[in-house]
Amino acid sequence: MLTYYSKKKLRYMFIAFGALLFHLFGGFSHLFSKDFDDDFDYPYEGNVKFLVDQMVNGAQFDPINTYYFKYKTNCSHLCNGPVKLLFIIKSAPENYAQRDVIRKTWGSGNNVNEKIRAVFLVGERTSETESLLKESIRYNDLVQGNFSDTYFNNTIKTMMGFKWACEFCFKHTEYFMFVDDDYYVSPKNVLKFVENPFIYPGRDVRVEKYSFTDFGTDKFELYAGYVFHSSPFRSYFSKWSVSLQEYPYNKWPPYVTAGSYVLSRLSLMRMYYASLFTQHFRFDDIYVGILAYKLEIEPIHNQNFHFDKKPYNHDYHQTIASHGYNDPEELWRVWNEENP
Fold first, then answer.
1. Alpha helix segments (H runs only) across 182-309
2. What is the pLDDT of residues 303-320, one digit of tens each?
3. Rounded distance, CA 203 to CA 299, Å?
4. What is a single cellular component term in the Gene Ontology annotation (predicted)?
5. DSSP track, 182-208
């Protein structure tokens, strides 16, 4: 029989085990997180919007956040003339077949009257160095940085795209669409969408009050895609676990999933400037959402940017982008059925 002291000890062990599980699944982190709505002040704590406003008007300030990468290839020729839409495609070094089929389908711009260009962002992978060099020489559409191409370097890759676009394509390009290389995209629908994001099918009905806005690419701060309103994962067992030291707030700012989003020229420039004064964060979609929040740019949701894969059917005529096309043959087939 268990003695009184044995029962007491066992009870304490159960309490300790429960507390450990509560900790490992992020319970204490949730309890001690700061309230986003009242306390959000992600570093830099100053008025980033004010600094960006000044920079747009020609002022210069020393940045607090700098990404120390160098271009191995930069495709500076790509936007020498007017470009309506530039696809900036985040790609893994080994995904040659996916890049090849994108060049032949939605990245070609052959099915629209407007001028479209596509560029691929890659980092370094030792095993792919020689093959990437050959690909770059052949197609001249790779922007490669000298950083390791890993999942948690996606923010570096994304901000390389922002910096490169501001340096080489800003003057001549109206819209910029960041896309992962496992997406189907309809350039025709992207162009229809940017004409007026608030009347395109699948819009958020709560934003109809903006239907008379001037959507000029130098006047409207467009940041659009599939918008999330969510909270950090605190569980130690999650790939996306975030500590309170890294991000102490109980919610993320509204953000567009990183797989596909569209920016106007004005948004691209202002977000890049804001990144110079905003501390790095390892999840690129969250980081871009933080930049937008600091600039008071409201993300625009449209359900025709599909975060999950949309099975191919007759409704694809309104689809702007769909995730899940990591099979090049499937992308080729769907593209040709939609664009006979």
1. 187-195, 265-275, 284-294
2. 999 999 999 987 899 999
3. 12
4. Golgi membrane
5. TEEE-HHHHHHHHH-TTTSTTB-GGGG
Q: From CA 220, how far away is CA 236, in angstroms rounded?
A: 41
- Residue ranges of the domains in the chain? 48-338
Mean pLDDT along residues 176-190: 98
pLDDT, tens digit (0-9, with 9 covering 90-100), for 40-71: 999 998 899 999 999 999 999 999 999 889 99
Sign for the pseudo-dihedral over CA of 271, 276, 278, 282? positive
Binned at pLDDT 50, 70 and 90, residue 215 comes out as confident
Structural class in CATH, domain 48-338: alpha beta
Distance CA 250, CA 231 (A): 6
Tell me the C-alpha to C-alpha distance, in Å, between residue 142 and each of 75, 102, 121: 7, 13, 6
- Note the pTM of the prediction, 2 decimals: 0.89
Secondary structure string (H, E, C) spanning 309-323:
CCCCCHHHHHCCEEE
